[in-house]
Amino acid sequence: MNSSLYSLSPESSPPLLDFTNITVMREDKKVLDSVSLKVGAGEHIAILGPNGSGKSSFIRTITRENYPVMQDGMWFKILGEEVWHVGDLRKSLGIVSHELQFTFNRDTTGRDVILSGFFSSIGLFRHDVTADMEEKTNEILKFLEIEGLSDRPMRKMSTGEARRFLIGRALVHDPKALILDEPTTGLDLHALHTFRKTLRKIAQSGTGIIMVTHNLYDIIPEITRVILMKDAKFCGDGPKDEILRDDVIGGLFDVSLHIREECGWYYATGY
For residue 92, what are the domain limits? Predict the structure, then answer.
């Protein structure tokens, strides 16, 4: 990938995310309840919590699909800016989710999936693909080691193969961060192994990782900070080795368990 992913160093950049007192309503229910979070440029974090805790609602708030309730003491900044054009935001933040994969269950080739990222479209439809776009796509295919699959239709790929092309689509604009919403859903052990290697390579290249998950084994070693979420609120935030403990994670999921660390990876056992 492009080694100059940032025009500014992380030290001189504004925070990637700077949210204070954010509440989001869906009908008469709070799906986010006065949450606050600051994430630095280039930082690798995981947001961990049970299903229904508000994790996906938080992602939809970042991507402007949800809008916060206006209230005193609230601010909502991304890269230092409160007002964003959605198209510009999509260039700064790459999004990957298993829901997005369902929209590509057709004859679109892997290469065209990546190219579609330049247009925020689902496939290509009379789009003007430039030579620079083709060159960038070739660079991404090589970086993700999926060149041999580029002409295969998405419907003929395994879940893991298709997921890597969605990552490629998210990388076309050299985003400041890659946001992953439950990224390993539907992956078998081999696909999970390959997917995690891909994420580590991206993290090591300089792109920030924001991972939203309920699985400890999704948290790659490069992630150093874990934020806990439950009942629409953040309920813990700190260094990974301080947060991923038996009592803390057992309380988060309401289950007795044992956390085991192995070579930078964390696993829950005994439940």
Answer: 42-62+87-269
